[in-house]
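Protein data sheet
==================
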Amino acid sequence: MRSFISKFAYLTLPENQFASLMYYWLLLFAASIGIFLFDLHTPLGVAAGTPYALMVFATLRFKENWTTYIATIIGILFTFVGFSLSSFSDLSTPMDVVLINRTLALMAITMAAYMVLKIKKINHELYLLMAETHIDPITQCKNSRAFKEETEIEIKRSKRYKRNLSLAIFDISDTSLSSSNQPEKPNIQVGNQPLRTISDEIKKSIRSSDQLYRVSHNRFAVVYAETELDKAKDTSEALCTNFSQLDRYDIQHIIGVNIGITTMNDRDNFNKLYERAEDALLIAKENGINQVATLPETFQLEKPHIPAILCRPRSG
């Protein structure tokens, strides 16, 4: 089913991208007709069908295997048709040479198709491998490696176009120890299920243009694209309210969330931005559980609770 859908995925592309694919296919078809006409006006002793192999290699432009199959079928079909429509009356080359040349042309097309399909398979496996190295297996969020690479790119993009960029760090803690008068263990790890629940809640509440990452076991980061600090704080505070209303996954384990937020300035790089968000997180932790802090600090009047998803216009 997945392969069937991928075959027709181009039908849902944006209009400009769909048009570029159509132009590309028209170009390939026009080139096939040109090779076919060249074959008709070339003596049969010449392997004029061999250029169809280039048409097969051109399908490397597309990820789907069916594009290669179509180009291969067209090349083989036109090679046979060109042979059958050619004139045999003035044939000066022995027929066995003609047949060998036609066979070589068909072999070139077939070998080209085999090589292209192998290349596509390798590219697909590399893509899956890269995806696995950038995806956290527990929450299915992007991991710390993706966080650093993509945030560095986002910082450069925001500086180039002079757009706002805010970063929030979510620290998840098990507060049941302090509530039961046991000594606090700052490095205690939260179970996988509550981490999944929290990541799902964040995903539902941020825009598609924002990015969620799991940067360590108990820590998430959200990159708020084109978002001012106060708007990022509004969204994070709404998320904190949502977290406090979640069902407890275990009566003996109560999950707390602290959030530190900062916004990018012209002198920032990835390390400076992240360190400042960590400093804001430390302030939030000092203020208690389920607290949000920003650097620089923001001051605003008390306002009614608004769902996180409504705090900013959705984009992307």
User: Anything to note?
Assistant: The first helix runs from residue 2 to 7.
